[in-house]
Design brief:
It is a single chain. It is built from nine helices and no strands. By secondary structure, the protein is mostly helical. The protein has helices spanning 2-25, 33-75, 84-147, 156-196, 207-256, 272-290, 294-302, 309-317, 319-357.
């Protein structure tokens, strides 16, 4: 009776195993992470249930085998001649146990291959999911940087403020750059695994191109972030020079505002020492103007070169910036021309005074 029950249990396991094996073979790999995880979880539970059936059946078979042997030993005093029926029962039980163990091993091998295929599919779907998220993030980053391209500040302080804001944003954006490069390495490992283990997971042929796209996006964003950093620094430097130039022009207006007849009046201010001091101050002012770097900005605008050429070219040829540079440079030329004229006039007056004095 127990042997028949064991046979019946083995048949049930065989039927369950056949149905489950058919289900595994017909399993279509899902196209998203959530469904793949669900399929893997469900099939893992079914596999665990069948393994438990194997464990129970083999355990009962071993118990039955011990019982049959013990019964035979107790009924056969001399232990020399077991009955043919007992031998037949023992052989049948041993055969069924061996069959169950062999079937379990075959099932384990089949399940490991199937699970490896599902796990590879899950890794691939996670890779694709993270790729799409990063792709979306990179698109937002590039769109933002493109929109901010003309926002370079209208003063040294505003350019410095934008630079600080960009520094914080750049730190956040670089996390996506690092994530993309990490995901690329995962993708390359996944592609190699697919190749070496011949898994042929659906969609695995797209891993290579996606890895190349990750590299392209990461490099492009890193370059764009660096370009904005440099562009804002160029803008800050430019506005610093413009500020110095405006200050020089303002002081020039004050310096040149006194009329020439003041120097030719009969007051004590028309002494030779006063002329000499006025000329020295004017020469120092002209020399300070010669040290302004507005001419350099103009030259850079007309002919840009070097590693930062793209940044300089954009900053310096920006419509508002270009007009501002032109206006400031025109003021400098006017003040410089008036300063030269004033110096020439003072020098002539000084010579005249010296001639009169002598």
């Amino acid at each position: 009776m127990e042997i028949e029950r064991m046979k019946s249990s083995a048949r049930v396991i065989a039927e369950s195993l056949g149905d489950f094996g058919k289900c595994l073979r017909e399993t279509e790999l899902p196209n998203d992470v959530q469904t793949t995880e669900k399929v893997l979880e469900m099939q893992q539970h079914e596999r665990d249930a069948i393994k438990e059936d194997f464990r129970i059946s083999i355990r009962k078979g071993l118990q039955l085998l011990r019982q049959v042997r013990q019964t035979e030993e107790s009924s056969n005093i001399d232990h020399q001649h077991p009955s043919p029926c007992s031998l037949q029962n023992i052989a049948a039980i041993e055969r069924m146990i061996a069959q169950l163990q062999d079937t379990e091993k075959s099932f384990d091998t089949f399940w490991q291959k199937h699970r490896l295929r599902l796990m590879s599919c899950l890794e691939l779907r996670r890779f694709e999911d993270e790729f799409r998220k990063l792709q979306n993030s990179f698109a937002k980053h590039m769109h933002r940087l493109e929109e901010q391209k003309i926002e370079l500040g209208n003063s040294e302080s505003s350019a410095a403020r934008l630079a600080l804001e960009h520094r914080d944003y750049r730190a956040d954006a670089m996390t996506d750059v690092f994530a993309a490069r990490t995901l690329k390495e995962r993708g390359l490992m996944l592609a190699e695994k697919e190749l070496t283990e011949s898994l042929n997971t659906q969609g695995s042929d797209s891993v290579g191109p996606k890895c190349e796209e990750l590299t392209r996006m990461a490099d492009a964003l890193e370059i764009a972030l660096e370009q904005r950093t440099k562009a804002l620094e160029i803008s800050r430097q430019m506005h610093s020079q413009i500020g110095k130039a405006n200050d020089w022009c303002r002081r020039g207006v004050e310096l040149l505002s006194s009329p020439l007849d003041l120097f030719s009046s009969s007051s004590s201010s028309n002494s030779f020492a006063f002329f000499e001091e006025a000329l020295n101050n004017l020469n120092l002012f002209i020399k300070e103007g010669d040290n302004l770097k507005m001419d350099t900005l103009i030259k850079q605008k007309n002919s840009v070169g070097g590693n930062d050429s793209n940044n300089q070219l954009f900053v310096l040829t920006n419509c508002d910036t270009s007009s501002l540079i032109a206006q400031v440079n025109e003021r400098i030329d006017d003040i410089r021309r008036l300063s030269y004229s004033r110096r020439d006039a003072l020098q002539k007056m000084c010579v005249d005074k010296m001639a009169i004095g002598f």
